Amino acid sequence: MPDEWMVRVEGREYGPVDLETLREWKNEGRLIRSNELCRIGEDRWVLAAEFPEIFADELPPAAPPDLIVRRRTWREIFRETIRIYRGGFWRFMIFGLLTAVPMFFMQWNFPRVPFPDFLNGETMPAVTIPPICWIMFLLVILLWPISTAGFQYVADDVLRGRRRSLAAQFSATVERFGKMLGTGLLVYFSYFFWFFIPLTAMIALLSAGLSIISLFLYLLVGAFMVYMNARLFINFLFWEQTAAFGDDGALLAVRESKELARCVPDAPKMDRPLYRGATVASLWLLFLLFAVIAVQFPFTVARLRGVENPEQAMALMQALSQAKTPDALMIASDIASAVMNLILRPLLAASFIVLYYDAKARRGRND
Fold first, then answer.
1. What pTM did the predictor assign?
2. Total structural domains within the chain
């Protein structure tokens, strides 16, 4: 026997009627989504809108699949990286300048400190950091979440072919400020802890005097520091993307980054997000180092003009490290390095937005 239903409209009940009659009443306008239905033999009333058998033609269409979230070959990754870099270049520069300018002024005003000779009993000299450096440092912290999120939104918009004004992108970064700041502090505090704590121990071992045991402990602590930072790098591989596009808190954003990096562990190595991310980051770092060396070379040649032996070179380096203010050549050299870093930074952001969606597709098919 087919199911029969009672209909309740403004406190009055009608029926029992079958499903076909309910469809007819719906087509005639006598049954609307806010009316209530109760199956004969049950006591529970539910809204008619909850029955797709009746209102199937009024259900909203299913969201189309996100075509950006898909697996990519290495050729597609590099091709889309270049397309994003070119398409968003000037906006990348604007968001990059937010942190590049205060960082450059902080570098200019930071006191030069010669590295002590621990083997001869020298210790780290006391350093007085001028107020301008603290102001610039605070400015970098405040602007850095906006700059980082801006890189992600510019890259994502270009990848999707979405046209959005710079003001709209900036507004989105401001809305995401707290999430980016909290996640970033968690990430960089972890790096700080597992880098400077072991480094402090290594300096203390050197200060205590050189011996076979201290040398062994020095190397052991150094290896442990490298191991811990390598693990952090893997776990934080996609943290900028998960923080910029996710809706969860900082801890869950870091957790999602870890899951994306370590997904598909049975796939060939170069198809795993972990190895892809590490490869892209390594290539970018090498490219950046070569580029900085290339722009620094003319300044180095000009600086060493007239130097005829290693003693003169060492004296020159010592004088530069102790100089209270940078000279014109040093300023020009620092500007060249800062500009090169500003120009190349978007390449890494463009690559990782592509790798992020590639990793999401691989994790989705592996679930």
1. 0.73
2. 2
Q: What is the DSSP string of 278-346?
A: HHHHHHHHHHHHHHHHHHHHHHHHHHTTT--SHHHHHHHHHHHHH-SS--HHHHHHHHHHHHHHHHHHH
125 in the same domain as 31: no
Chain-wide mean pLDDT for the chain? 83
At residue 16, φ and ψ (nearest 5 deg) are -75, 150
216 and 306, same domain (yes or no): yes
pLDDT the model gives residue 316: 59
Residue 121 has pLDDT above 80, yes or no: no
% pLDDT > 90, the chain = 39
33 and 146, same structural domain? no
What is the mean predicted confidence (pLDDT) over 42-60? Answer: 71
Residue 67 within a domain? no
Dihedral angle over CA of 168, 174, 178, 183, nearest 10: 60
Written as six digits, the tokens of 261 are 């990096």
In DSSP notation, 138-191 reads: HHHHHHHHHHHHHHHHHHHHHHHT----HHHHHHHHHHTHHHHHHHHHHHHHHH
Same domain, 90 and 154: yes
Residue 64 domain-assigned (yes or no)? no
Task: Mark whether 28 and 117 lie in a shared domain.
Answer: no
131-160 and 177-207 helices, crossing angle to 10°? 130
Give me the domain span that covers residue 39.
4-58
> Does 16 sit behind a cis peptide bond, omega within 30 degrees of 0 on the bond before it?
yes
